Amino acid sequence: MATARILSTGDELVRGRSLDTNTSEIARALSGEGVSCEGAEVVADDLPALVDAIRRACATADFVVLSGGLGPTEDDCTRAAAAAAAGVAIERVPELAAALEERFARRGIPMPPSNLLQADRPAGAETLPNRHGTAPGFAMAIGRGRFLALPGPPNEMRGVLAEEALPRIRAFLAAAGGPRRVVRTRSLETWGEREAAVGEKIADLMRRGRMPRVGTTAARGTIRILVHAEGDPADVDALLASDEAEIRRRLGPAVFGADGETIEDVAARALLASGRTLAVAESCTGGMIGALLTGTPGISASFLGGVIAYANEAKVRDLGVDAALLARVGAVSEEVARAMASGVRARTGADIGIGITGVAGPGGGSEEKPVGSVHLALDDRGAVTHRRLALPGDRALVREIAAKSALDLLRRSLGR
Amino acid sequence: MATARILSTGDELVRGRSLDTNTSEIARALSGEGVSCEGAEVVADDLPALVDAIRRACATADFVVLSGGLGPTEDDCTRAAAAAAAGVAIERVPELAAALEERFARRGIPMPPSNLLQADRPAGAETLPNRHGTAPGFAMAIGRGRFLALPGPPNEMRGVLAEEALPRIRAFLAAAGGPRRVVRTRSLETWGEREAAVGEKIADLMRRGRMPRVGTTAARGTIRILVHAEGDPADVDALLASDEAEIRRRLGPAVFGADGETIEDVAARALLASGRTLAVAESCTGGMIGALLTGTPGISASFLGGVIAYANEAKVRDLGVDAALLARVGAVSEEVARAMASGVRARTGADIGIGITGVAGPGGGSEEKPVGSVHLALDDRGAVTHRRLALPGDRALVREIAAKSALDLLRRSLGR
After folding, report:
1. Which of A194, A217, A287 is the closest to B308 by Cβ?
2. What b/e sequence results for B208-233 when a residue is b if at least 16 CB atoms lie within 10 Å of its CB, and e otherwise?
3. Nearest-by-Cβ selection for A393 from B74, B132, B288
4. What is the pLDDT of residue B370?
5. Does position A178 have pLDDT exceeding 70, yes or no?
6. Element (H or E) spanning B126, and its range?
7. CA nearest to B280 within chain A
């Protein structure tokens, strides 16, 4: 299988003033062509460092795709670095110089002489025309690799990648013959099991060296299982489908979606599909469940609204929670969560009511009810389900995971 | 000047499935300490590749900061790679194992045995405690560099970087002595003026070649003005303070905060400082104003809660909006926004009521009330302010800017 390494250059990237989004886009595009990305590097606008990075990358990868450093200023050293890495001279290309001059003439502004730097090219390189800006890219052989230089501004990079670089990579792979190999990835999104517990259930699938390659990542409560397979397109699809089926079998309802679906979208779609109506009674989440659900267009067909019962008086007045009960068991309790869920249902006439109350922190915790204690209840036409959560993390994370746990309970209760 | 290299590890980053934001954050934080970042690399979950990258980075930089690969699964190989790069063994740290076990015991759930991987550490390394998750980081000498490993999830990385890694880097720099040259950035956050209008008011400060360097960026309604200066710490601080004063003078109340403060935090703090109480009545934002405000700890002293009045029936039943008025002028109207603000105030007894109603899209727009039409009202003890917004963007952006515009109105009405 063909391999690639990705380079990006620019002091602003190295210093953290700009976020490098090109690397991620290029890696995804190459995967789609069956080229496996092995690593990426961000290099300062520094000639020796760039020469070294290009040489190292071209010594091990079939394709090296670099973005940045093609502009008209002194610190744009990609042309010089590629020439040095290949051991060739820099030459000025008359057609490129003429095109630059014409471009400026057409806009009626004088061309700064430094712009002519953009007409330079390592000897023997092929130009990759740029219809989205003034700096063209180029492609050439360096070491064992094909080196492709693209402009740095994301919109220009994207254009030259799609129009010029990928077609050349495709042609190169076709000319190299042999069966075409692709890398494809399927991700399964799970909620409700810890990463380590998920990992144990699929430990044999995650074994090093196995194909497909299976890994997990965790982000704010969602545990994602990534399945990568490489090979012949038909085989790859079969391998992914087989692993997906096995993972779904082992993890059951913890799997809520695939390929980046969110728990809020899945819950909202499940609610719409059920035809039932919902109202929420939120304390510690302060409106977040409603805010997440209403991100889905058309949700007004099922979501009636609800009450943000942040103060205890609101729980009594708006949700009919018994004041004596509140005083006896406290606002963060199973009883109050149940009363909130049933209260908002009664108040709004919704089929389903959700109640949530908890200690988001950083203050307000006690030995009995530490920060992260959350009670969650769902009343579906009189049948009440309750969950007690003990959530890790800071206030923002406790609140987000609490709200999404409510949405997880909702989609599970609707059989999704 | 001290130098750094940054590494991040994870197949999902190399393949472009997740965007690496840690590198950029770490680079900025190091700049603030006077450490110059020379380059960054993204490495797959592959032990030999990671060992090689760590060795190369530690051969040239004073500090090497890596994020990722510290989780509890087989593909988390940062601990093993650092040990191999340094030529030391891996050891299990009894205190870390005990802390992990206690953490799970406290939450009343059994610990998956694989979690114990997170109690491993290269021999001779120092633990960097992680109060935001289960995987601690570590620090050790490798080659000529100080190597610091941080967890991969951005919120955990951020916490361990600020609380554990930066103090150690500072102490190390102080011990090394010598004059310090720093790069510092001050950002001023504005709301309510377009980026081009902000740019025109400070065009002379943004001139190329001027020091400090001043630029603007726009993200989801907040226009940020960045002021960068480099040099001797005392000079840099004076330059930044002088530009900040000038920018605040020119932009007036559009500046709501500095250095990444959010409109929701500023509004929540202004509310708390005012001693007044607030309730919200949200239609198109579905609870987002409440969710944003309640992100601030202690807000329960001022925020009573409110009503998510997504359905028209809720506006009538829970907020006392006149049904005939609703039928006549429609839900998205100045009159209904005003009635919602006053209704939720009357219902809850709050000093201030906020009402918001709009067309978030993508459906539901008309010629008279296109997608992005939002009416916002604030009733402060009987004095009602109204704003009509015509917002660009998709559903998510319209909702977010609508909610934050309500918070902007709140902080301005409180004189902040």
Report:
1. A287
2. eeeebbbebeeeebbbbbebbbbbee
3. B132
4. 93
5. no
6. strand B126-128
7. A308
Residues in B touching A194 (Cβ below 8 Å): 112
The whole-number pLDDT of residue A179 equals: 52
Per-residue confidence (pLDDT) for residue B379, from 0 to 100 = 98
pLDDT value at position B178? 56
Most A CBs within 10 A among B73, B185, B276, hence the mutation to make, goes to B73
* pTM score of the predicted model: 0.77
Edge-to-edge strand list for the sheet holding B222-231: B213-219, B222-231, B182-190, B255-258
The dihedral through the CA atoms of B45, B51, B57, B61 has a sign that is: positive
Nearest CB among B103, B287, B295 relative to A289 is that of B287
A399–B295 CB contact, under 8 Å: yes
Residue B17 pLDDT > 80: no
Q: What CA–CA distance (Å, rounded) separates B356 from B385?
A: 12
Contacts of B16 in chain A (CB under 8 A): 23-29, 31, 37
Distance from the Cα of A47 to chain B's closest Cα (Å) equals: 12
Q: What is the pLDDT of residues B377-390, one digit of tens each?
A: 999 999 999 999 99
Instruction: Give chain B positions within 8 Å (CB) of A19.
Output: 19, 21, 24
Q: How confident is the model at residue B109 (pLDDT cuts 50, 70, 90)?
A: confident
Q: What are phi and psi of A25, to 5 degrees?
A: -65, -40
In the A/B pair of chains, how many CB contacts fall below 8 A?
286
Answer yes or no: is pLDDT of B120 > 80: yes
Whose CA is closest to A258, among A227, A297, A298? A227
- As given in the structure block, the two tokens for residue B63 are 């500090």
Residues A79-126: tens digit of each pLDDT: 999 999 999 999 999 999 998 888 888 877 778 777 888 899 999 999
Average the pLDDT over each of B3-17, B107-121, B292-306 and give the range with the smallest value. Answer: B107-121
Distance from the Cα of A95 to chain B's closest Cα (Å) equals 31
- Please name each of the domains of chain A with its CATH number: 3-175 (3.40.980.10), 182-258 (3.30.70.2860), 263-413 (3.90.950.20)
For the segment A402-413, what is each residue's pLDDT rounded down to a tens digit?
999 999 999 999
Q: Is a pLDDT exceeding 70 seen at residue B179? A: no
What chain B residue is nearest to A303 in terms of C-alpha separation?
Answer: B310
Determine contact, residues A369/A391, Cβ cutoff 8 Å: no
Which candidate from A23, A224, A293 shows the least CB-CB separation from B42?
A: A23
In chain A, helix, strand, coil percent, each to 5?
45, 25, 30
* Burial B326-362, CB ≥16 within 10 A → b, else e: beeebbbbbbbbbbbbbbbbebbebbbbbbbbbbbbe
Largest CA distance in chain B: 79
Residue contact A294–B287, C-beta within 8 A: yes
CB contact under 8 A, B297 and A348: no
Contacts of A308 in chain B (CB under 8 A): 280, 287, 290, 305-308
Quickly state the pLDDT bin for A33 (edges 50, 70, 90): confident
If you write DSSP's letter for every residue of A114-128 in order, what string do you get?
GGGGGGEEETT-EEE
**Helix orientation angle between A47-60 and A78-86, rounded to the nearest 10 degrees:** 50
Q: For residues A81 and A72, is the Cβ–Cβ distance under 8 A?
A: no
CB B70 within 8 A of CB B137: yes
Closest CA to A310 of B294, B354, B344, B310: B294
Taking an 8 Å cut-off on Cβ atoms, the answer to whether A311 and B300 are in contact is yes
Chain B nearest-CA distance from A94, in A, is 31
* Per-residue model confidence as pLDDT tens digits over A303-334: 999 999 999 999 999 999 999 999 999 999 99
Which residue in A27, A199, A305 is closest to B73 by CB distance? A199
Residues of chain B found within 8 Å of residue A20, distances taken between Cβ atoms: 20, 23-24
